[in-house]
Specification:
2 domains; elongated; Elongation Factor Tu (Ef-tu), domain 3; binds zinc ion; 16 strands; 235 residues; Threonyl-tRNA Synthetase, Chain A, domain 2; four-stranded antiparallel beta sheet
Length: 235
């Protein structure tokens, strides 16, 4: 299986074949996929799969035993066959918002030099939780700094490295609760210009300018090690 979204996060439509169908659990696995499987705080993609001119709705995309699988409706899964040629279409409105949100969270993380204890990307708002017992995070200052980084038009790129290199640079791993995804002893690093570098398997925009104006929402206290910073986009 090739994860097409890792090479090109802007791929909205792709051709492939159905590798496996699980009718009991109502999911299929495609040979190659541009559908992002729910992980690392980023929701799974929705969209549709077209088989012989028939449109089948993809309700969700998740990871199961390392595979990326598409969850389908009961009535649709009965109709399809393994090895059929299909066209996959990503619900781009939702996914592109997730890409902008995701990249914005990297920027937030680069500004706040504290351990990350949690996070979630959403369509309306996203959040990161920080270990901030002294309440150092300031909403106005953060909003000003993060919007400057957006305007600076930093390019976002990714590279694959041996995961053992990461053992020598543990400071790259900002999340205290989530282990970065490893495949065959390799790990994907996402770099935002000179601003941020960290292991990540998600989808991002090409340049920070695409994020647009960021609004920092409520900062909530969610326990000793959790200060939750909410983030919204203006469009
Ligand atoms: Zn990321």
């Amino acid at each position: 299986m090739t994860n097409l979204f890792e090479e090109d996060s802007y791929l909205k439509e792709f051709k492939t074949k159905i590798e496996k169908i699980n009718r009991e659990e109502k999911y299929i696995k495609l040979i190659d996929t541009a559908f992002y499987g729910k992980s690392g705080g980023q929701p799974g993609d929705r969209g549709e799969i077209i088989v012989d001119d028939q449109k089948i709705e993809v309700l969700d995309t998740i990871k199961k035993d390392g595979d990326i699988i598409n969850v389908l409706k009961d009535k649709d899964i009965g109709e399809i066959k393994e090895n059929s040629e299909v066209v996959g279409k990503i619900d781009w409105n939702v996914r592109y918002k997730h890409m902008r949100m995701h990249t914005a969270l990297h920027l937030m993380c680069s500004i706040i030099p504290l351990g990350v204890t949690g996070g979630q990307i959403g369509f309306e708002k996203s959040r990161l939780d920080f270990n901030d017992p002294e309440k150092k995070i300031n909403k106005e200052e953060l909003e000003e700094k993060i919007n400057l980084l957006v305007k600076d038009n930093h390019y976002v790129t990714s590279e694959i490295i041996e995961s053992k290199i990461l053992d020598e640079k543990p400071e790259l791993v900002r999340t205290m609760s989530v282990k970065p995804p490893q495949v065959d002893g390799k790990i994907r690093l996402v770099r935002i210009g000179e601003v941020d570098l960290q292991p990540c398997g998600g989808t991002h925009v090409k340049s920070t300018i695409e994020i647009g104006r960021i609004q920092i929402g409520k900062i909530e206290n969610k326990g000793k090690m959790n200060r939750r910073v909410n983030l919204l986009l203006s469009s």
